[in-house]
Write a structure and sequence with these properties.
Layout lengths: L16 H10 L27 H10 L19 H9 L4 H15 L4
Length: 114
């Protein structure tokens, strides 16, 4: 039994009971459709972790970990490009950083002194 809960609310309601009832009555029966936030589909929840308590959730998540990497890890770095070069690279679409990495790998191979 919780005993430290306040018995009286500390703030007043902004709306009267009649105003709340009128707002509920005026609300549409069908759900509001928002193009930017479409309803979820069952497939959206395929990888969800279900839990009934925080300790249970922590236990389940502790068991989940990434497996060994298939390829060597890449090292994050900062590089400076001219604005027009960067714009052209990004305009080439998704994967532009991978393509830059491949081009640099080829350059290093062709300019290697060994």
């Amino acid at each position: 039994m919780v005993t430290n809960v306040k018995q009286k609310p500390t703030s007043k309601s902004s709306f009267s009971q009649a105003q709340r009832a009128a707002a509920l009555a005026a609300a549409p029966d069908s759900p509001v459709v928002d193009a930017e936030n479409p309803p979820t589909q069952p497939t959206d929840w395929a990888g969800a972790v279900l839990s009934r308590s925080l300790p249970e959730l922590r236990e389940k998540l502790a068991k989940r970990h990434r497996g060994p990497s298939r390829a060597p890890l890449k090292v994050p770095t900062t590089i400076r490009f001219d604005p027009e070069v960067l714009a052209a690279l990004k305009a080439s679409g998704k994967g532009w950083q991978t393509r830059v990495n491949e081009a640099m790998r080829e350059w290093v191979k062709s300019h290697s002194r060994t």
